[in-house]
Amino acid sequence: MSWPAPVTLRGRNATLEPLAPSHHEGLVEAVKDGALWTLWYTNVPAPDGMAAEIDRRLALQAAGSMLPFTVFDAAGNCAGMTSYMNVDAKNRRVEIGSTWYAERVQRTALNTECKRLLLGHAFDALDCIAVEFRTGFFNHRSRRAIERLGAKPDGILRSHMLYKNGTLRDTCVYSIIAAEWPGVKAHLDHELVRER
Length: 196
Fold this sequence. Notes:
By secondary structure, the chain is of the alpha+beta class.
């Protein structure tokens, strides 16, 4: 059996379902809200590239290196995508990443709850040793959001990869380790109550 196995994670503000080709149209509508694919420092699929992105993520899932999710809001509408990625089953580590949300749900409780659900499943069900987050140096909004979760910086991978425009990306790496999870969990639960 693959680790981690596909699972649906449900909260008050968000539901994460295993990514499926049937989510295509909803994801196309979600990505149009905010035109995130136009930001040079992100890697968000354009509407006409959504089918290829779904195929890419599902191929990585079949290879055992990713567990992709479609994010739905409280009303049941597609709101974005996220994944467990860079899966390391032997060392019980995952990265939470390849995340994007429609502009209408950004800076709402949806993101906090998605991270709470993913982290809870990683530490409580999968017994992860650590959960990692990565983002580009110039993605300041993402870096602040990761830090607000309680993740700590591990360092910067200099000239780590190429952006779609050909420039080099410095990748900021953060993590939460198992010993930190009880405190992070309490913090996220408090934030979710406060954000209602």
